[in-house]
Write a structure and sequence with these properties.
single chain; alpha/beta; binds zinc ion; TIM Barrel
Length: about 500
């Protein structure tokens, strides 16, 4: 086994073999199916489960569905025409096929849908909400993610599973309306220093009143994880060696105080949680929504205030999941900038609007810093479907050239009908990365995971050992005629 001259441990013949299959999609799929891929650190639980699983659950629970919209109901609604699903219903196969199309991007036909693919995509979550409200169902979905990870040679999952419940008054009682009005006034006037001070004051209120919500949330996530381990799977896959952690989040489409209360509960839960399952905080949902845009800077100030209060809690922020045509051009100029400069994000999810950002050079400088780099989580299929951005429109090469650590992830592989294996195949096919670069992306997924230090060290060693073993097999099997005979 020869070593390449740049000091890499990778056998030269593995690199050569990889170069020889770079343009071959099927060969890349085979290669990446077998390759240990480290972690998928950007994926949403309810968007990662496949529509087949949702159908299975809905039929088992005899739920009602509108065939026109695909919306599920627990009880028969009076005002909407529905049919009841069950495993022994007439025409099961055709209904199943039609609903898989409604609950994913399979067979998506833009001319049949009045709004854009982004609206279609985000709309699917609402169709399934009657199922995803329930803790037992979420555990069933979580089990699917774990089984898939093991079958796909993935060693670590960092899942955005659920947001915490907060009361309607957001722990603020009679003061809610005053705080709400004041915050909105500051946003209107662009006086964010005042907004920050007020947010700090509100944190004081949360400290006194959110204790139960925090412990309930921690318990919910623990139960979800434990339950998903006890459910059997027909593939007989043992998931006990898979390392799994959770990020909490808030949806950026909510009222500002609700978003803040949820982000607070997640931060506090991460800071206090002793079993180390909840490891970070995020913010999700369409970035071009009305409230998402209006309160973007305020949301970043919320993260900044929480970072001061809970300095050890890491954050990964969906930022710059926008492109030309999705909003006004002037609004494509500051989302990533504020996420790294104001909110002090530890990782950036998507980062697609980078070429339009005013602070382009500062952003890349900060993200590629040797001391505390801020990796970007790249979700190619998601960006292709939701934003219509692919090939050279995607800024992945700009990040890479600037030295920003890249992590390959899936986002919502269920709705998007994809997998982590396919994301690696697309990254190679479209951008021509070398095996060494791909291997670094795999290592990045653990290096920048929100794991405790000891867990991380152990997992890095495990993934590197698995990669060495994988390379040894590839090396023998494909390339050295003097030894390949002994392998088969
Ligand atoms: Zn996402």
């Amino acid at each position: 086994m020869t070593k390449i001259e740049n000091g890499s441990d990778t056998p030269t013949n593995v690199q050569k073999y990889f170069e020889s299959i770079k343009g071959n999609h099927a060969a890349l799929r085979q290669f990446f199916s077998a390759m240990p891929k480290g972690g998928d650190v950007h994926n949403h639980l309810t968007g990662s489960a496949y529509a087949e699983t949702y159908f299975e659950l809905a039929a088992k629970k005899k739920m009602y569905v509108s065939l026109e919209t695909g919306k599920l109901y627990e009880k028969k609604p009076m005002e909407v025409e529905t049919i009841q699903l069950s495993k022994d219903m007439d025409d099961l196969h055709n209904h199943r096929m039609a609903l898989i199309d409604k609950w994913s991007i399979r067979n998506f036909q833009p001319y049949k849908y009045p709004l854009g693919p982004d609206e279609y995509f985000f709309g699917t979550f609402g169709l399934l909400s009657a199922l995803t409200r329930d803790a037992e169902n979420l555990a069933y979905l979580m089990r699917e993610l774990k089984v898939r990870a093991v079958k796909e040679n993935v060693q670590y999952l960092e899942v955005m599973a659920t947001s915490p419940s907060v009361p309607t008054d957001c722990f603020l009682g009679g003061e809610y309306a005053t705080y709400d009005e004041q915050l909105k006034e500051y946003v209107k006037n662009g006086t964010y220093d005042d907004a920050r001070k007020l947010l700090e004051e509100i944190i004081g209120e949360f400290d006194a009143k959110a204790t139960k919500a925090v412990s309930d949330y921690v318990k919910f996530v623990h139960d979800l994880d434990e339950r998903s381990n006890t459910l059997k799977n027909h593939l007989g896959v043992d998931t006990k060696n898979l390392v799994c952690r959770y990020q909490g989040y808030s949806s950026r489409g909510g009222e500002p105080l609700k978003v803040f209360a949820q982000l607070y509960v997640v931060h506090k839960a991460c800071a206090e949680e002793s079993n180390n399952l909840l490891v970070g905080c995020n913010i999700v949902a369409a970035e071009n929504g009305e409230k998402s845009m209006l309160y973007y800077r305020l949301h970043m100030e919320m993260f900044a205030a929480l970072a001061t209060k809970f300095p050890k809690v890491p954050t990964s922020l969906h930022a710059g999941e926008l492109t030309l045509g999705l909003g006004r051009p002037e609004h494509l100029t500051y989302h990533i900038g504020q996420a790294v400069n104001t909110a002090k994000a530890h990782r950036i999810g998507h980062g697609v609007d980078l070429p339009f950002e005013s602070d382009y050079n500062t952003i890349l400088g900060l993200m590629s810093s040797k001391k505390s780099p801020i990796p970007v989580e790249i979700n190619l299929t998601s960006n292709e479907f939701i934003l219509g951005v692919k090939d050279s429109e995607h800024p992945i090469k700009l990040y890479h050239k600037a030295g920003v650590p890249i992590i390959i992830s899936t986002d919502d592989p269920g709705i998007l009908r994809t997998s982590l294996t396919e994301q690696y195949a697309l990254a190679t096919l479209r951008y021509g990365f070398s095996y060494e670069e791909i291997k670094l992306f795999v290592q990045n997924s653990i290096t920048y995971a929100f794991l405790a230090d000891a867990d991380k060290a152990e997992l890095i060693k495990q993934v590197n050992d698995l990669l060495a073993e994988f390379e040894r097999k590839i090396s023998i099997r494909h390339l050295e005629p003097d030894v390949s005979g002994s392998e088969n």
